[in-house]
From TrEMBL:
Ranges of residues in domain DUF559: 6-111
Organism, as annotated: Methylobacterium soli
Name assigned to this protein: DUF559 domain-containing protein
Listed InterPro entries: DUF559, Endonuclease_DUF559_bact, Restrct_endonuc-II-like
Highest taxon of source: Bacteria
Length: 117
């Protein structure tokens, strides 16, 4: 088992409340029939959620992602995932918790944009 796979498995067991809420909305093709995987290894990273058919990674970011250091890390991570063919959509914890319907619409719009490219 690769290091990323082991880390992904551990992250699936210890997901945050926000990730659990979004996963309930996405799992079992719950977003217009698109299949998502959670805590999915891509290259040396583990994506919070990935729709492989659309080449879309959805990351749920908490308060720690507001620091300059974390923003730089996120930018580098997004660039590396782009080199693997994925667009990264970053969502704030607050948005997922307070506006799940709007978050679903945002994700669906990103998928549709990717599929029609």
């Amino acid at each position: 088992m690769s290091e990323s796979s082991g880390r992904a498995r551990a992250l699936r067991r210890s997901q945050t409340a926000t990730e659990a809420l979004l996963w309930r909305a996405l799992r079992n093709r719950g977003l217009n029939g698109f299949k998502f995987r959670r805590q999915w290894p891509i290259d040396r990273f583990v994506a919070d959620f990935a729709c492989l058919a659309a080449g879309l990674v959805v990351e749920v970011d908490g308060a720690t992602h507001g620091t300059i250091a974390e923003q730089a890390r996120d930018t580098a991570r997004s660039a590396a995932l782009a080199r693997c063919g994925f667009e990264v959509l970053r969502l704030a914890n607050h948005d997922v918790m307070q506006n799940l319907a709007g978050v679903r619409e945002t994700i669906l719009a990103a998928i549709e944009r990717r599929i029609t490219l």
